[in-house]
Automatic annotation (TrEMBL):
Species classification: Bacteria, Bacillati, Bacillota, Clostridia, Eubacteriales
Species for this entry: Clostridium homopropionicum DSM 5847
Pfam families, A to Z: Thioredoxin (PF00085)
Residues of the Thioredoxin domain: 12-83
Residues making up the signal peptide according to the UniProt record: none
Protein name: Thioredoxin
């Protein structure tokens, strides 16, 4: 997953992507590293979703900008509007079901 490095990049990505998925983590987060491959595996089934990663160590102000209070966190947007977010305890099955439902509506 490509990393976003600034608030401007994040906002541009959200606004310009029809289907946008953000994965927010930290360099020292073992749970984040364990969850990432599982989320990527789910997202491979949905090629129209553009996915990016944010490492909060790179952009300290992102926590306030996106209201991230714990990591790992994921946020899914459709046409710039937040559709759902999950943080800390993330069920991969639930995420896949939500993505699938919205993806079928858009497709």
């Amino acid at each position: 997953m490509e990393r976003l490095k600034s608030i401007i990049e994040i906002d541009k990505f959200i606004q310009e992507s029809k289907l946008a998925f953000l994965y927010i983590s930290s360099n020292n987060c073992n749970v984040c590293e364990a969850l990432m491959p599982k989320i990527q595996e789910v997202l491979e089934k949905y090629p129209k979703i553009i996915k990016k990663k944010i490492v909060i160590d790179d952009i300290q102000e992102v926590s306030g900008h996106l209201s991230i209070f714990t990591i790992p966190a994921i946020i899914f947007y459709i046409e710039g509007k937040e559709i759902f977010r999950r943080a800390r305890f993330i069920s991969v099955g639930e995420v896949e079901a939500l993505i699938d439902r919205y993806y079928k509506l858009i497709d």
